[in-house]
Amino acid sequence: IDRLVIATNQNDILHRCMTTGRYEMGGVKPSISPSMDIEISSNFERALFEAYGRDGGAVAQLMAEMKAQGGFAVSQGAMQWLGETFASGRVSEDETRAAIAAERAASGELLCPHSAIGV
Digits of tens for pLDDT over the chain (119 positions)? Predict the structure, then answer.
């Protein structure tokens, strides 16, 4: 595996972080893929742990900053690791619906909205 892909819906805090270097809360909007309607991702906290060289203290500081200020900046070194490990993308509600329809037309299979975002 070369890189893993972070695929998000309109609640795109992970994609925004991957493109800007800031993990910043912006409010959750209800979507047709509700399991992705999040702002605090425990999986991303694990990725940050690796990106910061398994330094739990550094990650704890970031989480404290998020709690106090609503976000934090990811260090340049950690962003380099994240960029080498992950690609990311954001999919709109219309794009999700289009992916569902396209797969249905192509294969007869009906994707759930969460799977369609990954496609």
Answer: 899 999 999 999 999 999 999 999 999 999 999 999 999 888 999 999 999 999 999 999 999 999 999 999 999 999 999 999 999 999 999 999 999 999 999 999 999 999 999 99
Q: Considering the entire predicted model, what is its pTM? A: 0.91
Look at residue 31 and give its three-state secondary structure.
coil
For residue 73, the SS3 value is strand
CATH of the domain at 61: 3.40.50.1100
Cα 97 to Cα 39, 47, 102, distances in angstroms: 22, 29, 9
In the block, tokens 């998020």 appear at: 66
Domain hosting 22: range is 4-118
Residue of 105, 85, 114, 115 lying closest to 3 (CA atoms)? 85
Q: Which two tokens stand for residue 72?
A: 């934090």
- Number of separate domains in the chain: 1
